[in-house]
């Protein structure tokens, strides 16, 4: 596998990847063979409850373990996959890989938590999305309660009707839906009322300076209050320090995600945390 090939090999992130259009088209032309050669993999980052520091969920994040360029992050190929009409098969791979992983943890007696899958704008409008999800759940004998969907606020700006039908089908089989990157996409309050959304994930741009920037602190506090009044859970993204975490806890935020507690890691590396289940933080 791509993972085995990469083991022990020292590789560099290619900083020119963004700039080079030749590289972009090279990557785009390789999607199909990359999938065939098993070069995509998932990393997992926990969502942690602020009341008792329990791990209450995971988010699956795709990576491309490229034989020449090393580990490529989704920001460098998800937009390409969208452009090249490759996001639907790639997204289908992610859904199936998440279900397969949940089944594998279950078989290893690893305690499960719901695993969130990021769904892109095009995928959200694909009328086969609910069927694809159900097919993977059935294939791996996974209960719908063990997966969640994250959609970005910006993906709801256009064609909300198409998105709504899929979201309602997914919600109807018990899949929870989170609004990702909240605060960056201008979707506004009406979306939260009209769609079957269970949680908002406050974008990390509001968390970064939350200790010093009064505007950010006010935006986050208001979002928490609004979301709670609508019966939604609030997750803060990009928590990188203890101070940010304590601020969010004091502000009544429900859950956090971020490098401070855990960077995204492989399925194998996240298993010990699932077994342990709680963080022992903050220490006195
Ligand atoms: P996202 O869904 O908002 O995911 C959070 C991103 O923030 C991840 O980047 C994660 O590694 C990063 N992150 C987590 N904690 C921290 C922190 O404390 N500080 C900072 N600076 N970053 C943090 P990643 O994995 O590079 O993913 C970027 C975006 O790519 C994701 O944003 C998501 O929109 C998209 N993406 C990832 N996996 C998939 C996928 O399977 N399918 C689709 N369609 N999109 C995906
Ligand atoms: Mg996400
Ligand atoms: Mg996000
Ligand atoms: Mg974000």
Protein topology:
Blueprint: H1 2-6, H2 21-29, H3 31-36, E1 40-49, E2 55-66, E3 70-72, H4 78-83, H5 87-107, E4 115-119, H6 121-124, H7 129-139, E5 147-152, H8 160-172, E6 176-182, H9 188-194, E7 199-202, H10 204-207, H11 214-229, E8 233-236, H12 242-250, E9 255-256, H13 267-276
Parallel strand pairs: 2-4, 4-5, 5-6, 6-7, 7-8, 8-9
Antiparallel strand pairs: 1-2, 1-9, 2-3
Helix pairs in contact: 5-7
Domain EAL: 24-278
GO molecular function: catalytic activity
Keywords: Membrane, Transmembrane, Transmembrane helix
- Helix fraction? 40-55%
Shape: globular
**Span from first to last CA?**
44 Å
Number of strands: 9
The spatial strand order of the largest sheet comes to 1-2-4-5-6-7-8-9
Class based on secondary structure composition and strand pairing: alpha/beta
Poorly predicted tracts of residues = 1-12
The arrangement of helices and strands along the chain is HHHEEEHHEHHEHEHEHHEHEH
Share of β-strand residues: 15-25%
Radius of gyration over all CA atoms, rounded: 19 Å
